[in-house]
Amino acid sequence: MPDPILNLQGVTKTFGGLTAVKDVSFSVARGEIFGVAGPNGSGKSTLFNCMTGIPFGPTRGEIMFNGKRIDGQRPHAIFRAGLARTFQKDAEFPDLTAWETVALGGHYGAGLRGSMSLDAAEEALDLVQFDTSRRDMKTADLSVYAKKQLMIASALVARPDILMLDEPASGLTRPEITALDELLIKVNEAGVTILIIEHVLGLLLSVSQRLLVLNNGAVLTEGEPQEVIRDPRVVEAYIGGAAA
């Protein structure tokens, strides 16, 4: 693969006698949207946690980002190095405005100071197409989709090389998923590589250039999305009684 921005080799995570992620290896090309799918309990979020160090790193294996090894580094160092993520559960400060929330991420999360933090917040909110009329609203009063936009903006405020999204379509309506699809394409076209975990296969198939499927913590298959979903092993994993 030319110019991989991210490379995992043999990443494994164990909890006592349980192996949640087993010997996972793959590479993400700079500038692509790479999807990760799999049934519930397949290890997707655990894999994300291992990559970002939140709240734990891998038990063993190697993670290279921009040519440097990051497994074992502290989460804030990984974030500031250019690898940012969102979470399945929306993280919000209900009493802060939308603009304050993103600016806070720029100041404390990304370590930006003064006008750099303010400029980065405006840039991130513009990129996710967050209406200027809603930027002074308290986050508690925002819609589900607006909170998704805000969470993505809070990750983008660090101007990352890779944006990692954990189930961003959760709780969204069909029209909102369509809007999210268009938003992710726009963010990617702005030069951000995207790694996305998602249960909504329609979104993954629409935006991903490549798709990896996990099952029982291990890589089941990887390739072009339309080919991957026709793989009988993938059909069995989703429909044939895979662990939930």
TrEMBL record:
Xref: InterPro entries: AAA+_ATPase, ABC_AA/LPS_Transport, ABC_transporter-like_ATP-bd, BCA_ABC_TP_C, P-loop_NTPase
The keyword Nucleotide-binding is annotated on this UniProt entry: yes
Name recorded for this polypeptide: Arginine transport ATP-binding protein ArtM
Highest taxon in the source lineage: Bacteria
Keywords from the named record: ATP-binding, Nucleotide-binding, Transport
Gene3D superfamilies hit by this protein: P-loop containing nucleotide triphosphate hydrolases (3.40.50.300)
Organism: Sulfitobacter dubius
UniProt GO molecular function: ATP binding
Residue stretches making up the ABC transporter domain: 6-241
